[in-house]
Amino acid sequence: MTTTVKPPSAPPTAIRPKVVARTGLYAVLAANVVAVAVFFAQAGFASNALVVLGRLFGLYGALLMAFQLLLVARLPWLDRRIGMDRLTSWHRWTGFGILWTLLAHAVFIAFGYAEGTDVGPIGTIVDLAETTEGVLRAVVALGIIVVVGAVSGRWARRRLAYETWHFIHFYTYVAVVLAITHQVAVGTTFTSSSVARTYWYGVWTVALGAVVLGRAVLPLWRNLRHQFRVEAVVPESDNVVSIYITGRDLDKLPARAGQFFLWRFLTKDRWWQANPFSLSAAPDGRTLRLTAKAAGDGSAALRHLQIGTRVFAEGPYGAFTALHRTRPESVLIAGGVGVTPIRALLEELHGHAVVIYRVATDRDAVLYDELRELARAKGAELHLVTGPVQPDKLAPAELLRMVPDIADRDVFLCGPPPMMSAVLANLRELGVPKAQTHFERFSLAG
């Protein structure tokens, strides 16, 4: 442990970017919910109650699809303030909302049009698909959404390879296009009002435009501008390696300590794989550094990269940054290779910091020498905690012993999921406010 005199405290951050972004998203969604209701009412209720309900569910299903696109667009403004893991969580629940609203749309429409006829609801759907423009496309779109919803369940995710799951999810874009053309062809709001028609075209233009901007235009533009290449490959241990990336105008790249990129190394056998790795050093305008542990063939092959290898990087992503600080002093808790963003954050953070590094053995303490020197230079306290998982070395009493004023500090946490869950529970027990607890999991929306 290294202990030094605390430097003067820095002023806390007054702005709550996460709250601003979250409130903005909710406000946009609420405003559109009201707008849809108004346009729906203006179109009139010429059919029976079941058909009316079916049309309303269809409109809100379409609105949720547009909102879903916004969540997966990876727009920098939202990502830096909310974080990709939380956007992914919202994306998942919005997806289930789409599934149930569109199923309700189909059921109410089928029973509504079947009312008073000898043809059942299934026969009604078949007749509509054969005789009404756009209905067949809607049936196909609903089928795709049902399949995507099925493979999104936890039981299915555990049984599918990520590549398979991701490939199936790409068909969601096909469903979106089919749903748009269905809405244009038979949607009453399109046929009854030019204002409503303009509104819906605007909604879909913004949603699809956000996806194109965030998922294609920005990554392509940044890679053309910066021309990333491997500058050095440095083994840190038997199974951990650091990769130094250089390029042009890196001082113009809006990356911060704590963020991560999707790295695609353009070799013959790895160009198609993109892996999320955090920056393990604060960006200095000249190089970017990632540090990865061998967890599979892709990460194990990194130590064999050749100097000069071209790199396609998507990002920076993540809200695990000093942007969200609420207190002048902080606690940084790392577990295993989760030390990489923690080490970068320590380099950038001002004010007194306490760093707690949890590993099984001393040999597992990657970048520990760097942490020790950095802590000494910044006047931070560093605790290396080793030993088996049980007993809990980061239990509330242990945390309080190392950081008596932990409830008055920001806490940044990164490590294996079981450790993070346990520490988060311990922090709640110690009364650390939720707003002062910062963590992020590697979850990729869409």
UniProtKB/TrEMBL annotation:
Its cofactor is FAD. Residues 223-323 form the FAD-binding FR-type domain. It comes from the Bacteria. It is found in: Membrane. Its main location: membrane. GO terms for cellular component: membrane. It holds the Pfam family NAD_binding_1. The chain crosses the membrane at residues 25-46, 52-72, 93-114, 134-156, 168-186, 198-218. GO terms for molecular function: 2 iron, 2 sulfur cluster binding; flavin adenine dinucleotide binding; metal ion binding; oxidoreductase activity. It is a multi-pass membrane protein. PROSITE patterns: FAD_FR. Keywords: 2Fe-2S, FAD, Flavoprotein, Iron, Iron-sulfur, Membrane, Metal-binding, Oxidoreductase, Transmembrane, Transmembrane helix. This is Oxidoreductase.
